[in-house]
Fold this sequence. Notes:
With 289 residues, the protein is an alpha/beta fold. The chain folds into 2 domains: 11-47; 61-286, Vaccinia Virus protein VP39 (Rossmann fold, 3-Layer(aba) Sandwich), CATH 3.40.50.150. The chain has 9 helices and 11 strands. The protein has helices spanning 6-10, 61-74, 92-99, 118-123, 156-165, 183-188, 206-215, 233-241, 254-273, and strands spanning 22-25, 31-34, 41-42, 82-86, 103-108, 125-128, 141-147, 167-178, 202-203, 219-226, 280-286. A 7-stranded mixed beta sheet has the order 6-5-4-7-8-11-10, sandwiched between helices. Strand 2 (31-34) and strand 3 form a beta hairpin. Helix 2 (61-74) crosses helix 3 (92-99) and helix 8 packs across helix 9 (254-273). It is globular and about 45 Å long. The structure holds zinc ion (ZN). Zinc ion (ZN) binds at residues 14, 16-17, 19, 35, 37-38, 40, 208.
Amino acid sequence: MQPPDDRLERGRPCEICAAPTRPWHLLGGGALERCPVCRHLRRPLASCPAGHRDLAYGGDPSLDRIRTALTFRSLRPRGVRSVFEIGYGGGSLLRRFHDAGAQIGGVDPGQLDVDVDPVVREHGRLWSGPAEDLPDGWARADLVVGIHVLEHVADPHATLRKAVTMLEPGGRAVFLTPAGDAWGPRTYGSAWWMLEDPTHVRFFSADSLARLAVDAGLTNVRVDRLVLDSLTTDVASLARARGVRRPDGVLADQRVLAAAAASAPAVLALRSLARHTRPTLRLSAARAA
Ligand SMILES: [Zn+2]
C-alpha cells in the first residue's frame, strides 16, 4: 500500500514547463506544489474549493480607488486608442481609459451579478463568461490588460492565447499577478495574504510568467517587479500570522487597514531597496507587428 501522501510527494507536472513538481511545506502548515525548474507554484487540488469566491477580498472602496489610479498610470495610457481588459470587475480601470478617450472592451467570468460602471456598460464591448469562450479576435485592441487575473483562471495558457487574438499587430499585453518567487510565501508561509483568497490557484515566478508569454507567441517579453502594487500585503500577512482571521478577509478589519496605511511609507522604502520584497510581477509583451 502506498503512503497517503504519495500523490503529493510525486506532484502534478508543472503546468508551465511540465517538470515534476515537489511539495513545498510552508511555515505554519500546508504545502504548495513547486516546480524545481521554473519555480512556478500551484495550490494542491485539495486546497482549492471549486467555484468562484463569494466574497470580495480586500475590497475596501478607497483602497480600490488608489489601486486603480496607480494601475492606470503604470499602463502609460497616453497614446492608447483601444484597450481590452481580461477580468474587468466593476469596470473602474476601463472607465479611466474611456474617460481618456480610448475604445474599451473586456471579458469577465463573474460580472452578471456585480455592478459594473454604467458608462463602461454603455460604451464597452463586454463579454460575461470565461475568456476561453470568447471567439478569437472578438475585439481588437492595441493594449490588452489582465490585472490580478492569471492567478485565478482555469487555464492560463488558454487565457493568454486568447488575449493574443485580441491584440492588434504591434499591440502590447500587460498582466499583473502575485509573485510566488518573492519573499511573501517564504517569509509569511501559510499566513501570506495572497493565500487568503482560495481562488488564487497558482503563483507565477518571473521565469514561469515569461515562459507563458513566449508559449503564447508574444515577443519582447519582459517581467519586472512593481513597488506600487498590493500595498497592504505585508501588514495583512502579519495580521494573519498573529492569528487574525475573518470570513470577509483580514483587510475588513479597520485596525489592520489603519496599520497598512501607517506602514505604507516604510513598506515602499523597503521595496525600493530590496527587489525580492516586491509582491507583484508585471509581464509586458508585444504581438509581432
Ligand atoms: Zn515549471
